[in-house]
Input
Amino acid sequence: MSRTAVLLTRKTRLLVQGITGHQGTFHTRAMLDYGTKVVAGVRAGKGGTKVEGVSVYDTVREAVATKRANASIVFVPAPFANDAILEAIEGGVGLVVVITERIPFHDALEFVPYARSKGCTIIGPNCPGIISPGQSKAGIMPSHIFSAGDVGVVSRSGTLTYEIVNEMTRAGFGQSTCIGIGGDPIIGTNTVEALALFQKDRATKRIVVVGEIGGTAEEEAAEFIKKHVTKPVVAYVAGRTAPAGKRMGHAGAIIQGTRGTAESKVKAFADAGVPVAEYPRDAAALLGST
Amino acid sequence: MKFLEYKAKGIFARYGIPVPRGVVASRPEEIRDPPLRAMVKAQVLIGGRGKAGGIRPADGIAEIRDVAGRILGMDIHGYTVRTVYVEERLDIEREMYLSFTIDRSARDTLLIASSMGGVEIEAVPHEQLFMEHVPALVGLHPYVLRALTRALGLEGHLAEKVADIARRSYDLYRAEDAELVEINPLVITKDHRVVAGDAKLVVDDNAEYRHLEYAKLDQDRTPLEEEAHAKGITFVQLDGDIGVIANGAGLTMATLDILNLKGGKGGTFLDLGGTDDPDRVAQAFEILIKAKPSVILLNIFGGITKADTVAQGVKRALDGMHATVPVVARIKGVNEDRAREILKGVGMHSADTIEEAAELAVQVRRGGV
Output
């Protein structure tokens, strides 16, 4: 059976940048176990070796040429991540999932627009990745909490999403694709873009948006939903009790003056007719009433 | 990373941006050889200093020291003034505004300028703002600078000077990994100099490894936050009394929100991140215990995180510090049953869901359990 999904399907041929590191190796195994086609690893100087049975190459170009990789996942540490991401874009892959956290945003100011100019989609940085349950996973999320279904999930956070998805799965709401877009101020795929993908995707019938304080992504999402999204959407917003001026872990999660508050986001969703869950687990219940 | 005005001005000067002459002091008698027509300015990491009485004119060494003595020790919006900057008082002809900042929505850098300076930029009417995106891959080109100086109504030498300052500010913004470079006011003096009257600089925390010289800067942190930062632990002190620790920033925020809905108030935001290394967990817990919470609420949703090694770290910290603070734990993850056993062994309350855990924490705090 061939099913659609967003950005990542069972056909995606993934390469892992930073495959020889602890995280890279661990999650290569986990992704292989999930059924992801991990076709190559890249680590300069380690070409010709194997990790978890996956051939390692010195460059992205070799991995693409030899193994026809068309997507990459990046575990390379922050100081070297910009280089790795640019190499992936230049190497011709269409999707780059950046797991690495603490990348300076000035680097993202370069690789995000560069990727767009090359028709390459970036997810992240500082994200758990993307999973199309039952098909493929390019990320670090725990596979067992997901189940295949028709709900698209877009989220700025990792573990909070697991919490919500776990509840959805228990309540019988499987997922078409879950995109962890990342907690940084400059990200490759934003909430609006993820919504646009889900609106177009035939396998997605309903959408969950998991937002948090900081920036105006949720307000823009609400505006977009009003104009362009016909599928039912429910939301959750984290950080309702966060004080202004304090960075709540994520580089992007900070209330600056009156901007970025949870109230503003909740109100924007309400104005767009999007029910907002009070507790994370309620997102699943709200889906039931859509 | 935030910078006090005088530190920011030191960096601005390094990039060739004209700043007034000044001297810094933490006691009045330290002030030597100041500009004799001076502004004495409180150095705190918060805006609104002027209105709070933290910026005052003074002439001559005696008056300067007297005014400095009154500003030092002042409380400005909760910040104690420990340093003053005594600066040349400018004869102002005009005040303008100039900044470079990150525009998250556009995923780009935004140049903002206005002929209305010296006031909060949020208060300036939109039509009085010159705004232009400066893509990092394109850079700041002369045509933008020409448009900028035209919008500010400048010509000749003044236009050249302002364009030069804008170019240098952008170089600083890029090279120093800044989130914000702001000159407000950008002053044209009566003798036609262009000078940065104030200087605001915020540098991306994630870029600290490229700017190790800033690592020791006095930040807007409590001593305990400072200790956590030095250990690489994401920790924020809050108003409440219940110590909240979870894994992941979003989940930690959500845990605080849920606690609030259940009638409790979080006193800490501690994001354990993806670790299940007992040593790291113990370190984080030590910070948490030092914050003297009435109850600790631990919420771990670890699909991959090993719950039992997290529990070992918790036990180690509690034992090591002889802490008697009650702990309510909700742990999901690999080996969660073993984790519950370990935690039960040290008298911890456990719950299945965050909601239950939050309710329990509130009850324990009230002495009901």
Q: What stands out?
A: The radius of gyration of chain B is 26 Å. Chain B has a mean pLDDT of 93. The first helix of chain B runs from residue 5 to 14. Chain B touches chain A through 51 residues (CB under 8 Å).
